[in-house]
Design goal:
The protein is an alpha+beta fold. The chain has one domain (about 1-135, about 175-245): Phosphatase 2c, domain 1 (4-Layer Sandwich), CATH 3.60.40.10. It is about 35% helix and about 25% strand. The chain has seven helices and ten strands. The protein has helices at about 40-70, 75-95, 145-150, 160, 200, 205-215, 220-235, and strands at about 1-10, 20-25, 30-40, 105-115, 120-125, 130-135, 135-140, 185, 195, 240-245. A five-stranded antiparallel beta sheet has the order 1-10-9-6-7. It has a five-stranded antiparallel beta sheet with strand order 2-3-4-5-8, with helices on one face. The chain is globular.
Length: about 250
């Protein structure tokens, strides 16, 4: 597995409130995560940074401990580590938001532990995880958002959601409540590619362009990531843009 990541402020935002995390533990074990912070001038940065640190500490510590004891890391182990990291991050952000200057801050998270026999992913918010395979880009995670709710009840289509005036309204994030219930996804195989991204990418580019870019065999994974971010900026760059691409050797 080869993993590439990059984050960009975008064209219109003064600061980058996105964060991303890549940790590789040999050839068949890795952690990837993207965080999209929100909440005022300082709150978004603080929330996403705190969440990134919590995920790094909880999951990296747990994986290294298991590796040192030569214990096989199972999908159940991975799910427990991701869940623990989400709860730890949520509690830390919620506590920090008692500061009036940080009130209401929060962050999305899309994270996954990639094992040698599958992938365990966790989602809170509207950052996304995709896979490529069977000739298409397939969204693994489901957005915790108002427009996704409208899609689910048949009020609007996915195409209409892309331009809906409330498309940035999320229904769940880390840090705004004392507990959080993340969504968990399991893949029993390693896809050809995994793409993690904040909504700064998906709100700017359509999925067909994203698919064509990440499956272009003529360029490296690093160039694919940079090409996606450059294209999002050329499309207006209205938000911070973060991309992680994991390619299965």
């Amino acid at each position: 597995m080869r993993i590439y990541g990059k984050s960009d402020t975008g064209v219109r935002r003064p600061v980058n409130q996105d964060r991303f995390l890549i940790r590789e533990f040999g050839d068949d074990l890795a952690l990837c995560a993207v965080f999209d912070g929100m909440g005022g001038a300082n709150g978004g940065e603080e929330a996403s940074s705190a969440a990134m640190q919590a995920f790094d500490n909880c999951i990296t510590g747990g994986l290294l401990e298991a590796m040192q004891s030569t214990k096989k890391i199972t999908k159940n182990d991975a799910e427990k580590l991701l869940f623990r990291a989400a709860q730890t991050a949520n509690a830390e952000i919620f506590k920090r938001s008692e500061d009036p200057s940080l009130e209401g801050m929060g962050t999305t998270v899309i994270a996954a532990i990639i094992l040698n026999d599958g992938v365990i992913a966790l989602n809170v918010g509207d950052s996304r995880l995709y896979e490529t395979g069977r000739g298409e880009l397939h969204q693994i995670s489901k957005d915790n958002s108002y427009v996704q709710y409208l899609i689910d009840i048949g009020r609007i289509t996915k195409e209409e959601a892309a331009t809906h005036p409330q498309r940035n309204m999320i229904t769940k994030c880390l840090g705004t409540e004392d507990r959080v219930e993340p969504d968990i996804y399991r893949l029993d195989e390693i896809p050809e590619r995994l793409l993690f991204c904040s909504d700064g990418l998906t709100n700017a580019l359509d999925e067909s362009f994203i698919y064509e870019t990440v499956t272009d065999e003529t360029v490296s994974g690093d160039k694919k990531v940079r090409r996606l971010i450059d294209a999002a900026n050329k499309a207006g760059g209205p938000d911070n843009i973060t991309v992680i691409l994991a390619e299965n050797d």
